[in-house]
Amino acid sequence: ALPASLGRGCLGRWLLATRGWAPLGTGTASRSCPGWWHQPPLLPRAARQSIGTQAGGLKAAKPDGNSKDVSVQRALNEETLVSAAQKVKEAGRDFTYFIVVLVGIGVTGGLFYVIFKELFSSSSPNKIYGDALEKCRSHPEIIAVFGDSIKGYGEATRRGRRQHVSHIEYVKDGLKHMRLKFYIEGTESGKQGTVHVEVKENLETGRFDVRYIIVDVETYPRRSVVIEDNR
User: Fold this and answer.
1) Which of 28, 39, 145, 157 is the most exposed place for a label (fewest CB within 10 A)?
2) Counting Cβ atoms within 10 Å, is residue 213 exposed (0-12), middle (13-18) or buried (19+)?
């Protein structure tokens, strides 16, 4: 109900206030209205319900935003774990390759060492055989018996190859000794000889010195040709 004490000016202000409009103006007319302009403007019930609904919708939307952030963070964590596992896998594979390379280098180095020792070391049976064969080829009596183009060969293997040089190693008086036996033949048909070689270790030089090189002629007339004798 409209208060009876309100004047015409206050009536207009009261009607505006009930429709959400704030009271305007100051002065005598405003002061004659009993405190209506100090109250906050009232909103219609439908407007208040609409604002409440929007506020509730905003509050309800927050969990969806948090859920989306959690999903993104979870995906990032899973991607990080997969990336770390991939790096560990690649590191293990690289380490395996590194070990294989090291083993290959070791095996190759060992093979080169064995080849070098067999071909160039003074204590190698092949080196001693090669030196003795060269001395036989240059000896005048051997050339007279066997002819030119003298070649040497070892014991025959199961495959028919005659590249193996028979040798034995032993120690006498604290020094290493080695004995070899191989065969020679030349351009003279039917002529064959057996070469006997013995070497002894020289502690001063670290090499093997020849004790003797003797060739036994296996065809008639049989005899032995001394190539070198340091006994």
Assistant:
1) 28
2) buried
Distance, in Å, from the CA atom of 85 to the CA atom of 80, rounded to the nearest integer, reads: 9
- Give the model confidence (pLDDT) of 133-172 as tens digits: 999 999 999 999 999 889 999 887 666 566 678 899 999 9
Instruction: Give me 4's structure tokens.
Output: 């009876």
Q: Which two tokens mark 193?
A: 């000889």
Write the pLDDT tens digit of every residue in 21-66. 444 444 444 444 544 444 455 445 555 555 455 545 444 444 555 6
Tokens of 172: 């006498």
Token pair, residue 120, equals: 């160039």
Instruction: Classify burial at 147, counting beta carbons within 10 Å of its beta carbon; exposed 0-12, middle 13-18, buried 19 or more.
Output: middle
Which residues 6+ apart lie within 8 Å of 141 measured at CB? 225
Which of 56, 5, 51 has its CA nearest to residue 32? 5
> Which residue, 186, 182, 183, is CA-closest to 145?
186
- The model carries a pTM of 0.50
* CA–CA separation, 133 and 150 (whole Å): 9
